[in-house]
Design a protein that fits this description.
Helix content is 18%, strand content 44%. By secondary structure, it is an alpha+beta fold. It folds into two domains: 1-34; 37-195. The chain is elongated.
Length: 200
C-alpha cells in the first residue's frame, strides 16, 4: 500500500511540475510573443473655432497599424440596397499609427451640391419642417506589418438641409474596427509602401 502511495505521489509531483512548466511557457509567450490586435474608432470633441468633425483611431495593439485608405462621403440609400455617395472634402489625418497611440482624423462637412441633394427624399423633422437628411460615412482601409489588409466603415454623423437652415449632427462612435472587417488582400506590405502617404 505504501508503495502505491509513493508511486501516486511521484506521478502527482511530476504532473504538477509539468503543469507549472506549461503555465510558465504560456506566460512567457503571452508576454513576449502574443500580439493581440486592437483597433477602435472613437468620436473626439469638436473644435468650435474651425467647425471640423473629429474622430480618433486608437491602436492598442503591440504593432504598428498603417492607414492605407480613408474616404469620407455623404451617403444615401440607392437602388437595390446599394448607396449613392458624394465625397466630403478637407479630410486630414496620418498614415501610421504607432502601438499604444491615438491618431486624430478630421473632416469639414459642407452642403452637398444640389445635383446630389435632389435625389434625397424630404422628411418632416421634429419641428414640423421639411428637410433632407444624408448620412456621413467613413470608410477606412488599414494594414498590419504581416501584410494583412482590411477595410471597415462607420457612420460618423448626419447632415440636414431645410429651407431655412443647414445643420450637422455627430454620432457618438466607439467601434471595434477589427470586429467583422472585410479582408482586402494577402500580400507583403512592401508591395503597398508607395501608397502610405500622409492624408491631407
Amino acid at each position: 500500500m505504501e508503495m502505491i502511495l509513493n508511486i501516486l505521489s511521484y506521478v502527482l509531483d511530476h504532473i504538477i511540475a509539468i503543469i507549472a512548466l506549461c503555465l510558465t511557457i504560456f506566460s512567457l509567450y503571452m508576454q513576449f510573443f502574443h500580439r493581440p490586435r486592437r483597433l477602435r474608432a472613437i468620436t473626439l470633441p469638436p473644435y468650435l473655432k474651425d467647425n471640423k468633425t473629429r474622430f480618433g483611431i486608437c491602436n492598442a495593439s503591440k504593432e504598428t497599424v498603417y492607414i492605407t485608405g480613408l474616404y469620407v462621403e455623404y451617403s444615401i440609400p440607392w437602388y437595390h440596397g446599394s448607396t449613392k455617395g458624394y465625397p466630403v472634402s478637407d479630410v486630414q489625418g496620418a498614415s501610421v499609427i504607432n502601438p499604444g497611440s491615438i491618431v486624430e482624423f478630421s473632416y469639414k462637412a459642407k452642403s452637398p451640391p444640389k445635383e446630389f441633394m435632389k435625389d434625397v427624399p424630404e422628411i418632416i423633422n421634429s419641428d414640423g419642417v421639411p428637410e433632407k437628411k444624408v448620412n456621413i460615412k467613413v470608410s477606412i482601409q488599414f494594414a498590419f506589418p504581416d501584410g494583412k489588409i482590411y477595410s471597415n466603415w462607420f457612420t460618423s454623423g448626419s447632415y440636414m438641409v431645410s429651407e431655412n437652415s443647414i445643420s450637422e449632427s455627430v454620432r457618438g462612435v466607439n467601434l471595434n474596427l477589427l470586429k467583422g472587417p472585410l479582408p482586402i488582400l494577402d500580400k507583403k506590405l512592401e508591395d503597398i509602401d508607395s501608397s502610405l502617404v500622409e492624408i491631407n
